Here is the input.
Amino acid sequence: MGLDDRKLAVLRAIVEDYVATQEPVGSRALVERHQLGVSPATVRNDMAVLEEEGYIRQPHTSAGRVPTDRGYRLFVDRLSRVKPLSPAERRAIERFLVGALDLDDVVHRTVRLLAQLTRQVAVVQYPSLARSSVRHLELVPISTTRLMLVMIADTGRVEQRLVELPAPIPAEDVTDLRRLVNEKLVGTRLSDTPPLVEALVDEAAPQLRPAMTTLSTVLLETLVERHEERIALAGTANLTRGGLLDFQGSLRPILEALEEEVVLLKLIGEVEPSTLRVRIGDENEIDNLRAASVVSTGYGPGATIVGGLGVLGPTRMDYPGTIATVRAVARYVGELLAQN
Amino acid sequence: MGLDDRKLAVLRAIVEDYVATQEPVGSRALVERHQLGVSPATVRNDMAVLEEEGYIRQPHTSAGRVPTDRGYRLFVDRLSRVKPLSPAERRAIERFLVGALDLDDVVHRTVRLLAQLTRQVAVVQYPSLARSSVRHLELVPISTTRLMLVMIADTGRVEQRLVELPAPIPAEDVTDLRRLVNEKLVGTRLSDTPPLVEALVDEAAPQLRPAMTTLSTVLLETLVERHEERIALAGTANLTRGGLLDFQGSLRPILEALEEEVVLLKLIGEVEPSTLRVRIGDENEIDNLRAASVVSTGYGPGATIVGGLGVLGPTRMDYPGTIATVRAVARYVGELLAQN
DNA sequence: ACTGGCACTCGCTACAGTCGAGTGCCAGGA
DNA sequence: TCCTGGCACTCGACTGTAGCGAGTGCCAGT
Here is the structure.
């Protein structure tokens, strides 16, 4: 495959120009704006090759070229230089995140910040419970047969569930239950918890058994099994920039996808140790998002990762800038979490 | 003003047809589809009057008529008969809401249900803290200088805040603090709380004073003053139905408005004892929503109102149906809350 | 291997012409 | 007095045609 340096330079120029202007780019415009040192005709030949290889295409015969998903992929992998954040952005990040009160606050500020900086749709996953450990469990009697279970995780997440007891229990028993679950569970990772939770029933005093059984069921079901992820979203209005040219005319599928927590989790929640992930157009497993690109990464205090965050935008997006921003925001958030 | 019965009937017919077809309706089509008992010419005369009075207008000279905001208003106020829910809808509501686990669950189910039934954007406000009373306050030590304050309200809402203490305090003091705040605050409405909270400091034992001071500040600031409303949203994808004809071509302003909590609260949060509120187009105070209509109402256990819910859609919406649905859903949710 | 030149394609815009839905008005009739 | 049928008129939507121009592919020449 004959992709010499100049052809790559041409592809890069096409991507950059198209992202900037949102219009198919022709050979003349290209040599004018970039110092390629060759004539339009030569560029045309290179374009023909690039098109044959599937990196660019023509919307119609007499139009300029537009990058394909494959073209963007090559651009991201080999052609884009990392764009350092501007001092202004850097300051914006700090200003935005300093002074956050608690986890909710951090997440909300982060998602708005991301949306604002990238001018795209931002998604932030709350620290995953599966990756958190238990800091404290509280049982608050609501009535004689109802408890409110409040779990506080080391990541700052607080979750609550109503527990419907099979029979009324006295206040002292609640105290005992509380002591027992805290004794056994505090400090453990939730993903390691199931056997411990199951063991709880056996360790409880006989008269506590029934209550402990339902309690452990609730714990397992709601906190571990369907591990109750939370997500914050911002910047959907940014989808309307580029007035329907992006997303092939309809926001419908995108908006639908964004309403599904499951989908969002797939997008940003699959946190691998890998640093950062870019999914371009067709590479998205979700059909509704075939016209979009997603840049996502994990974040967490220090080197550990507790959740994911990212942005979603048109395939025609400023990848270097977006990547830099996402990475920077993730790092800042990580530091913020580490402080707590 | 000469609006006899027939002219009103004509207006009603225009609204109904336009809502159904989304196309300007002419005099011929009108007499064909509705038993008005008069000729198109007569209808035309009536239309001329209606137009003069500002209830309908012509998009352009050779087109049919379209209702104005004022026309919709008249329709809603005087011309629409209440449309009873279909048994299918009724069943949908029950099926959807039965089995909700806790407040979060109720709110999420409700907002999705509303969006689905009305095929519009649904908004549900969590029970307002200002209208809740304190059921329990929990203080969980995070470190020697940090407490997690967890408040459980009678409406089922649970809020937490991190409290940064001025100096380390021992565990017994936390217990004392907990006892004290619960003693004084449990059972009070949050809106009546401020004097009580302020009094707390004086009632605390001397060595508790500093901690109690910051604690009461947090209580006042976060739970009472900026009373921390929460909102759930669903169905934004429904904005794209009617393909850009509604909302004069751009979803932008709508999406922007929907991202602002403050705006949403204005929309549905101003809960008066009034049963149900319809804001049509221009009647909306928010500029971005001048092309939309909002149907909202309060909900709560029994006769009391703890929060608002509603839907937002194009001015060209099925008002009777939407109103019926919103009202029904609010009632069901109220019943559900009453059970807890 | 690159370049200038040239023929060709094809979307875009402007313009003219036709069609038809819908109107407003008026004279005649119940 | 109120309704109706008839008629002239308006104007947007659609169609077809023509010219423009950006952009290409190809080829012969250096």
